[in-house]
Design a protein that fits this description.
Chain lengths: 816, 344
């Protein structure tokens, strides 16, 4: 809502309050003002001139030489290039020495040899938005009404000595979508009295009865609670008076003709949208408000054919044909044209939700629909109707018939709210007195009747539809008293302890481990493309990607089913920017459902994923770069599981999930009381995907965190330091290449029993010396007993059993 | 024999005097003191001496040996010192060359800021509540006093999946879930961080996905002045004790009264600058007293308890804190961007 400071001054005395000061007061009071532009964008010394004659320029076809009376006492000769300038017009004339917006100074000049003593101006040259001017004024110079007085300052004629308050309204304050609503607000803020229009005293009707011309009815009471109409005979369509046009332009509305302008003017003034029908085109003089029927169509005022749907409200005439889309836009078939003589003027309250759905569906948002959507004040429907009727009689030469045609299906009563002093102070922490509260309520012009000490019944006017409970009044009191006046206190009551939950603490720990491991934390969008949602089948548990009903783009049309696709994208993005060794991780949710169409919320699974590519460490002057491999990714996970106390429960098994290199991938399993479950994968990215994303060799992992959260053991228990010496035995065995190191160590542990403290692979050799399908695995075994020194015999016995086991299970040969 | 010994001493000391390197020193040691050296040679003649003379000559022999050894040792030590000095000199490296860096990553700036905010509230006795990002219309809107067709739904055009299920548009549904879980108990004291989604065209200041942190306190006799006190404490712990806050009336369907909260501009300290559009204040929070209908939906009697709630955008706070020019950097995952937030 754009509010003209000058217009507002019609209703309330603003002396001593500059537009900027007013904007500050309103903003601090809860009506935010974005900016306060001046309507005069730099005009000085431009006056109304009368074009006495226009002759062709002797040396230029497109120029004219005008003789202009600008009230200066002597005629001015002005060269003008506008095609629409003609003798007999009143026009804005920038005299020599004038200033125009954009720091233009008007000087005496010669144009193609002819002297020009000033300039005839277009609206744009005056700094006006010409989109807001009537169509015939948008090209060429601005032509003013014939009765404009010669020599008058153009700032006065166009009411440009004004400022606009640009209101950024919250949805609850739709009462301020009207000049009167803003005036009430300013009155409450300043405590100054209001002067409001009273159309009732200007209603001079003829003996002709309205009911003989128009009858109204409401077919669907749920969509219209009040419909009123007046009949105005014998209007003459023409321009609205200049002052009214000026105000419409100031508010950002383009003047059209007197009838349409008056409906818009009253809409701005009262917040009540109005509509004027050409009465001659309303069959039978009958108007019915009803829901549209399947298959009905209506050509709206913008010449678009609209297919109507049963939830849309239409105005239908005596032939039952739609002539308007209620609250949204009129029909072309009942439009007011220059030939129109009789008007049916509509003022009504339509259901906000229905108007909202209609305007959304048709993509038709208008000043009217915006107001209906937020709910107009039923208490002012009739007054707005009368105000517009009075203005039409005054400015369109019409005659009013006697009475109002109306149908009302629901009455509106002002809301009564109980308010107590203790509630106000208890809720705000203030120490206001009864008198202070009473004063604030009276500034708001809310009627408050005391029910004993510190307690009132407050009658809220219908214009404030946002107030229905005591807390709403508490806010009114608080904002008018001033939020700054509310003290600052500490919460009373028992102390509470803040702490992270286990999963929250683990998430932070994961961040710490992985960043210390050299990875950057990424955050990616939770929505992705259908294609990406299908990339890693095993990571998505066969879930169907969940699609947004109305995505903004294909790339962001479904919820992610895994974290890795976006990490691959981020890696590719980094490589394109010469960040050649992306090392990233992300912790976040993926969204799984087995339903085609969701009927319940999907599973949101907390996950962690990581990616490494390129060099582990960048090359430096004293060391070469080293490419990352599978064991970097795995090592990070091992550290994670170790730190979370899961090391003993985790195992890695060769696996071939889609999207991964089939020979370089492990399923990560977790042993739980329910058995062994796969919680994720670690491996090399499949060469196909690597190519698709244009990546170097890339190693990735993704794990499910819920199981990790459940089983992580954060307790630390001290183990006594060894008091007896260990015995170390290294062995090297030759086995088939297919035999995994994990299988060897597991077998060794199973035989080693309590004497075997640890076993570790310290070398793996493949090569000519042992045969191409073989490998040699070197293992370091450490034996120790907690309570005594082991004897050579004891160790040798166990060691021999181990070697025997390896031979039996893997045909392992001890390498000498 | 005594004379021969004395002569040997003189000759040896004279010879040793001029020795300049370790190998010549060794040669002389062998020549005079070795098993086949001159001293041994002379003393071999002791057998021919009388019993009285023998200990005397023996004594002299020892003295000569000791004198020669002392000089040799002294020489040796000085040669060793020189040798060490030479070696250390040769081992000199260029200490100005860079060291072997340990590569460390950074927590994402949004999580870094969120953790900072969480820690402040943990210290104030809050716990952290979380809820689903895919929500029902009921929790996201209806229970928060935003019935269908409520004009305020305009403010946050949403991503629906079905008519009843959508991506949450704010973290506020966690308020309702928390209240229901608390089953009417007080006090409730939580903050709710998380991702939220709104249909917004992405530009330098808008992102369709962003992060919020919301707070909710419910207790008997909770006041708006407590809300002001809480926010002031938070802002001062976050930005410093010189910071002030300013509340402006505003509107949220789920709070009444409602307010926007400005803080002293972090850039200019309230003097007025480009960042605060020369007002000295920056808007960072929305807040208010929990609307009675919301309390009812959460299972509380608005006549028995009151509540306050507040919410802030993590991106906005991070943009201001680090003076970042474009919100899209947060989701680009450029390691040159992410790496900048590794400092403690």
């Amino acid at each position: 809502m754009n509010v003209s400071y000058r217009w507002l001054s019609d209703y309330i005395d603003l002396s001593g309050i500059t537009p900027q000061k007013l904007a500050e007061m309103m903003t601090r009071g809860g009506i935010e003002i974005d900016s306060v532009p001046s309507r005069n964008s730099g005009i000085n010394n431009v006056v109304v001139g009368y074009v006495k004659s226009r002759e062709k320029h002797p040396d230029a076809d497109k120029l004219g030489v005008c003789i202009v009376d600008a009230g200066t006492g002597e005629d001015l000769q002005i060269v003008c290039g506008a095609p629409n300038v003609a003798a007999g017009q009143k026009v804005p004339v920038a005299k020599v020495g004038a200033k125009l917006p954009g720091d233009v100074n008007i000087k005496r000049a010669k144009l193609r040899g002819v002297e020009s003593q000033g300039m005839i101006c277009s609206a744009r040259e005056l700094g006006m938005n010409d989109k807001l001017l009537p169509k015939d004024q948008q090209e060429g110079i601005m032509v003013l009404p014939g009765d404009t007085e010669i020599g008058t300052d153009i700032l006065e004629v166009l009411a440009l000595e004004d400022s606009i308050l640009e209101l950024d309204l919250t949805p609850n304050r739709s009462d301020c979508l009207s000049m009167l609503g803003v005036a009430y607000e300013v009155a409450a803020l300043t405590g100054r009295p209001l002067t409001l229009p009273d159309p009732s005293k200007d209603l001079h009707a003829s003996a002709d009865k309205t009911e003989d011309h128009v009858k109204v009815s409401i077919g669907n009471p749920e969509v219209c609670s009040l419909y009123t109409a007046r009949y105005i005979k014998g209007v003459k369509i023409g321009p609205a008076p200049q002052w009214m046009q000026n105000r419409l332009i100031a508010a950002g509305i383009r003047p059209i003709n007197n009838i349409v302008d008056i409906t818009n003017y009253v809409m701005l003034e009262y917040g009540q949208p109005l509509h004027a029908f050409d009465a001659a085109k309303v069959s039978g003089g009958r108007i019915e408000v009803r829901l549209a029927r399947e298959g009905e169509v209506l050509v709206t005022l913008d010449d678009q054919e609209r297919k109507l749907q049963p939830h849309m409200i239409v105005i239908a005439d005596g032939d039952d044909k739609p002539i308007g889309l209620a609250g949204v836009m009129g029909g072309a078939n009942s439009e007011v044209t220059p030939e129109t003589t009789d008007i049916i003027l509509e003022s009504a309250k339509f259901d906000g939700g229905a108007v909202r759905r209609t305007s959304r569906q048709l993509g038709l948002r208008s000043e009217a629909s915006a107001r209906f959507e937020k709910g107009v004040d039923q208490g002012r429907v009739r007054e707005a109707l009368n105000r517009a009727a009075v203005l039409m009689v005054r400015h369109a030469g019409g005659q009013l018939t006697e009475g109002v045609a109306e149908a009302e299906t629901a009455d509106v009563e002002p809301v009564k709210v109980e308010l107590s002093l203790s509630r106000v102070n208890g809720m705000l922490g203030t120490d206001l007195s009864s008198l202070e509260i009473k004063t604030i309520l009276s500034r708001l012009q809310f009627d408050a009747v005391a029910n004993g000490e510190g307690s009132w019944t407050v009658t809220v006017p219908t214009r404030r539809g946002d107030i229905s409970r005591d807390v709403d009044l508490v806010e009114e009191v608080a904002r008018l008293h001033g939020y700054d006046e509310i003290p600052t206190t500490r919460i009373e009551g028992p102390a509470t302890t803040g702490a992270l939950t286990k999963s929250q603490a683990i998430r932070r720990e994961l961040r710490s481990i992985l960043t210390n491991g050299g990875l950057q934390e990424a955050i990616s969008y939770s929505v992705t493309s259908l294609e990406q949602a299908h990339l890693f089948k095993e990571l998505t548990d066969g879930a169907l990607p969940i699609a947004l009903a109305m995505p903004m783009s294909e790339e962001r049309s479904v919820l992610r089913t895994a974290l890795l696709p976006s990490l691959l994208e981020s890696a590719a993005y980094n490589l394109n920017r010469k960040n050649n060794a992306p090392a990233l991780f992300e912790i976040g949710s993926v969204y799984h459902s087995d339903e085609e169409v969701l009927t319940r919320l999907p599973q949101e699974k907390p996950r962690a994923a990581l990616l490494v590519a390129g060099n582990r460490r960048s090359a430096s002057w004293n060391r070469a770069g080293e490419a990352v491999d599978f064991y970097d990714a795995k090592g990070l996970l091992e550290t994670v599981f170790d730190r979370l106390g899961l090391a003993g429960l985790i195992a890695y098994e060769p696996a071939q999930p889609s999207g991964f290199h089939p020979g370089r991938t492990a399923a990560i399993t977790l042993k739980t009381e329910r058995g062994t479950e796969t919680i994720g994968y670690v491996g090399q990215l499949h060469p196909d995907l690597q190519k698709q994303f244009d990546l170097p060799d890339t190693y990735v992992a993704e794990i499910e965190l819920s199981a990790v959260y459940d089983h992580a053991d954060r307790r630390i228990k001290y183990r006594a330091l060894p008091r007896y010496p260990a015995m170390e035995r290294d062995i090297a065995v030759v086995v088939d290449r297919a035999v995994s190191g994990g299988a060897l160590t597991e077998a060794i542990r199973s035989v080693g029993g309590e004497l075997l403290e640890s076993v570790e692979v310290f070398d793996v050799y493949t090569g000519d010396r042992i045969g191409s399908d073989k490998k040699s695995v070197a293992l370091a075994l450490v034996y120790r007993h907690a309570e005594r020194t082991l004897t050579d015999e004891e160790v040798s016995a166990v060691h021999a059993r181990i070697l025997e086991k390896l031979e039996q299970s893997f045909h392992a040969e001890l390498r000498k | 024999m005594r004379d021969r010994l004395e002569a040997l001493r003189r000759e040896a000391l004279e010879q040793l005097q001029g020795v300049a390197d370790a190998s010549r020193l060794n040669d002389l040691r062998v020549q005079y003191l070795g098993k086949k050296g001159q001293l041994t040679e002379i003393l071999r003649g002791m057998g021919a001496l009388s019993a009285e003379e023998r200990p005397i000559i023996g004594q002299v022999g020892n003295e000569v040996r000791a004198a020669i050894e002392a000089v040799i040792a002294e020489k040796q030590e000085s040669f060793d010192r020189a040798e060490t000095a030479r070696r250390l000199q040769a081992e000199t490296i260029d200490v100005t060359l860079p060291g072997k860096a340990v590569q460390v990553g950074a927590v994402h700036p949004l999580n870094k800021v969120a953790q900072e905010i969480e820690d402040i509230f943990l210290g104030m006795g809050y716990t952290i509540a979380e809820g689903p990002e895919v929500e029902t219309d009921f929790f996201n809107f209806e229970a928060l006093n935003l019935p269908k067709d409520h004009p305020a739904r305009d403010m946050q055009d949403s991503f629906y999946i079905t008519d009843e299920i959508l991506l949450r548009t704010h973290t506020s549904p966690v308020q309702i879930r928390t209240m229901k879980a608390m089953n009417g108990q007080t006090p409730v004291k939580v903050i709710c961080p998380g991702k939220v989604y709104r249909r917004d065209d992405d530009d330098a200041t808008h992102s369709f996905m962003f992060h919020q942190i919301e707070g909710l306190v419910i207790a008997p006799n909770l006041r708006m002045s407590d809300l002001k006190g809480t926010l002031l404490q938070f802002v001062q712990e976050m930005y410093g004790s010189q910071m002030q806050i300013r509340l402006r009336p505003s509107f949220f369907p789920f709070t009444e009264p409602s307010a926007e909260v400005d803080v002293t501009c972090v850039q200019c300290g309230g003097q007025g600058c480009r960042m605060c559009k020369h007002t000295g204040w920056i808007e960072i929070l929305g807040c208010g007293m929990v609307h009675p209908k919301v309390l009812e939906h959460g299972g509380y009697d608005p006549n028995e308890v009151t509540g306050f709630a507040f919410g802030m955008g993590v991106e906005r706070i991070a943009l201001l804190k680090y003076d970042i020019d474009d919100i899209r950097h947060f989701y680009g995952n450029d390691v040159k961007f992410l790496g900048q937030f590794a400092k403690m």
